Amino acid sequence: MASLADLAAAHTRLNGPAISHLQRLVGSWSLPCDLSFADLLLYAPADAAATEFVVIGHVRSTTGVTAHAGDPVGERVRAVDRPLLRQCLLEGLRCERPLAGPLPAGAIDEMVEEGITAPLGPGGLVVDHVPVRFGDEIIAVLTREEQARSVRAGTGLEREYRVLFDRLASMVEEGAFPAGRPEKSGEYREPRVGDGVLVLDREQRVEFASPNALSALHRLGVQAEVIGRRLDSVGIDDAVVRRALESRRSTITEIEDGEDRSVVIRCHPLVQGGRSTGVLALTRDVSELRSRDRLLVSKDATIREIHHRVKNNLQTIQSLLQLQARRLGSGEAKDAVAQSARRIGSIAIVHETLATDATDEVDFDTVVRRVVRMVEEGFASPERPVHVRVDGELGDLHGETAMPLAVAMVELVQNAVDHALPGRTTSVQIDLIGDRRDLIVRVSDDGSGLPDGFSLDRDSGLGLAIVRQFVVADLGGTITMGPARTQDPVGTLVEIRIPRRRDPVTVG
Fold first, then answer.
1. Residues β-bridged to residue 426
2. What does the alpha-carbon distance between residue 139 and residue 155 come to, in Å, rounded to a whole number?
3. 491 CB contacts (<8 Å, ≥6 apart)?
4. How confident is the model at residue 145 (pLDDT cuts 50, 70, 90)?
5. Does residue 108 fall inside a structural domain?
């Protein structure tokens, strides 16, 4: 089955940033799906006039009956058969239905029933349409679909959950959901709606608590009434709630009470009209899981400790090399030792990042900016000012990829500085580009360019030899070099292209 990005690229006119936004939405939509008690589908227009749509995403809730027995992803739908899809996309208007209960006499029934003939029974589907906004445009339509025969008034808990779904749907309309890059769950057990739901207002007071959420709080020793109170007033650290309100992104933490009581809390900020209105918090009692974990040797903690010690040792070596460089009289020797110190420093930065993360991946964009800052500081002088600019992002990379790639980038920046034109500021541009198959790094400068007849095989020095070893031999990538521009100074453009790491699939 093709991925969302594949389907969108092949069958729609959506650009890269819009597709990335839809990928983030699909990555977070299990929350609104569980709150809706229905299936969620994502429809993207196949043409500019929106005469046809393609289903590029589908998820089933863990709380309700599915409306689609098969897999609708990849299906094409004509606007003449589903006119509300086109209306929702072009007009940006949401088609809502009442949450529950009969309508008063004389009221207008806004419920939309589209009699889709499929193996769904005679009742057809009840469909809610939500426009998906990205920037100033409506780029897709999110639908909540359930079988008409399964629609029911529901309990008070269900009605509360559907109200929460409506609040998240409004955020989708405004382009505020999902809210940025969420904090990593790491070794935490990610909570779902069925594990427990808390709703807090913008003053951090609890407005609603599901029975499972109350049970999780009771596990932490909270016996007092929580409705209308802040979590810190009942003895629960509410820093995770404050972070969600301040940063407007999803946050997560684990709260422990003794050795045998642990609860994970994942907070999602609620926004309306650009203003924070509260926090939706999911709770999960992981006490039994933690008790079991404590009986095993923590591999993650051991690996992080190893990375921490390696980082400390590398930083010690880097400091010794820097001290040695200061005592050398030869300029060439000083430069060689300083370059080695920067290489070791870049490796230490990757190990430091791995030491603070429970996974084997690092936020490479953060690593790049730290490495660039280290190189700029190493070359900083009135005689040879250096400015390095970084654009784009590669996201999270496995440590085995991030480490050699970071060292290669240090070498390329050092090369750019070494071959800069005298008497002027050296400007280096780094572009990070990640697609589905490859990781691409482009480093360009404004120097004198490559000499005539340059050959990477024949004329590369130590720095380029290191880059070639890491990129080609270790990462299976390619290196191309050429002029950065047609006019003087022509400069040099180096492009590194590395295939994305593929983890082996375990069968059985």
1. 386
2. 35
3. 444, 445, 446, 447, 448, 449, 483, 484, 485
4. very high
5. yes
Let me know whether 130 and 258 are in one domain: no
Q: What is the pLDDT of residues 396-444, one digit of tens each?
A: 888 888 888 888 888 888 888 777 776 677 788 999 998 888 899 999 9
Are the C-beta atoms of residues 281 and 212 closer than 8 Å to each other? Answer: no
Q: Could you tell me if 9 and 122 lie in one domain?
A: yes
Neighbour tally for 488: CB within 10 Å: 10
Number of domains in the chain: 4
The pTM assigned to this predicted structure is 0.56
- Rounded CA-CA distance 501/54 in Å is 30
In a domain, 187, yes or no: no
Domain match, 431 and 481 both: yes
The maximal CA–CA distance of the chain, rounded, in angstroms, is 95
Is the same domain home to 123 and 252?
no
> 279 with 339, same domain?
no
Q: Does 163 share its domain with 131?
A: yes
* Closest-CA residue to 134 (of 87, 177, 94, 170): 177
Angle between the 331-355 and 399-418 helix axes, to the nearest 10 degrees? 150
**Is 237 within the bounds of a domain?**
yes
Distance, in Å, from the CA atom of 374 to the CA atom of 397, rounded to the nearest integer, reads 20
Encoded tokens for 481: 């070099």
CB atoms within 10 A of CB 352: 19
